[in-house]
Amino acid sequence: MYKTNLIEGAKKVLNSNFNEEKGFTIPCEGLYPFQWHWDSGFIAIGYAHYDIEKAKREVESLLSGQWENGFIPHIIFHNESDTYFPGPDYHRSDLHPSSPKTIKTTGITQPPVLGFVLKEIFDIARDKQDVLEFIRPNIDKIFKNHEHFYKYRDPHDESLVYIYHNWESGTDNSPIWDEIWKTMDPPKYKYERKDTTHVDASQRPTNREYDCYLHLLEIAKAHNYDDAKIAELSPFLVQDPLFNAILIKSNEALIELYQILGDNHEKIETLKSWQEKAKNRFEEKLYHEELGSYVYYDLRNEKQIAYCTSSTFTPLFAGIPSKERANKLVERFKQNFGSEDLFLCASFDPKSMYFNPKKYWRGPVWINLNWLIYRGLKRYGYVQLAERIKKETINYIEHHGFYEYFDARKEMFDNSAYGGKNFSWSAALTLDLLNEL
Ligand code: GLC
Hints:
Layout: H1 2-17, E1 18-19, E2 24-25, E3 35-36, H2 37-48, H3 52-63, E4 75-77, H4 88-91, E5 104-105, H5 114-124, H6 128-152, H7 166-169, H8 178-182, H9 195-198, H10 207-222, H11 227-233, E6 238-239, H12 241-261, H13 265-285, E7 287-288, E8 293-294, E9 296-298, E10 303-305, H14 323-337, E11 365-366, H15 367-379, H16 383-400, E12 405-406, E13 417-418, H17 424-434
Antiparallel strand pairs: 1-2, 3-4, 4-5, 6-9, 7-8, 9-10, 11-12, 12-13
Helix pairs in contact: 1-17, 2-3, 2-5, 2-17, 5-6, 5-12, 6-12, 12-13, 15-16, 16-17
Bound molecules: alpha-D-glucopyranose (GLC).
Alpha-D-glucopyranose binds next to helix 2.
């Protein structure tokens, strides 16, 4: 019974956030009024369960913002809205010669989910032939996107790519970035924040953090979003485990899809060579022996940033760790994130002094990260733990609705829902969890 209600509720959220005219879905009314890159990927998976045409439109509208050089931005401004800062006039994608002429975007990206999203849509769809006809003209665009990463964002040619902005990580205000903010001295910019008009300021990033975020964009804009200049000058240059795990998973999905499509020998070989190098380097560079966990690598300051976050468990999703390392990783997961008094999975190490259970990416549980970890645990055969995270994810939604993020502490359960209310990826991924094949 509850399952039917949840499914209907999830569809309602998605349908009401869908922009019929432009064919894309906002993450959430007011707070996020445009099309966001990785949100759209998760959203398309949700649609695939009940309206495959919408899933296709979601992907196509995202790809309509792709730059000529292969880059896919983190926001596509199909529409106007004054409820969000910084908007299109701030980002100025027109500064870069490859940006689209007819549509405004940002000049930063987000975790490259589209590769694996296409494969998910294919797996879910009943009419495989029909979906293949959709994938055929679009898959090369995603290949080109990956090529762009390896060409422009991999200065040491190690098949690990960097992000140059915390918004590219998807985990905006993680304590991980605090180390970098300490190295910066941004001007105090004058602007009007909009996020704190929708959500209590105590749950959002601080003004100083916002100044750092803008400063990174100012540097990129001052050089017309030129990749080489950004690599040379940005104080923020990080190899993020979530971002790279997603890229690796998407490579894997592209290989599988090209094999199904046939006649793509060369691209498959290229993908395989990126893949092999990337996995090896990931193991060497992003693993922290003492923590028994993957971590972040700060390329600008040449050191690991060694804390555990929900992102550090996502290499399981991409099949990166050996069985032995996976065991260690799962031990760390259980010890720090899975204790009796917590629901899975806090976004930052609950045992750390920087853990903040209410503040965005500094502690709360996020549905998309839970979904990625759930899939990862299943992939490696940790069945019980996978079932636990799935159950606890659905439990949040069932009791509170499709919120953006949740307090992990069991004692706070009654008041644990935060952020945007009818949040699209929370709805889309709930649909996926409930409709598992
Ligand atoms: C926030 C999240 C980011 C998400 C965006 C839109 O910025 O940190 O991951 O993509 O909102 O939902």
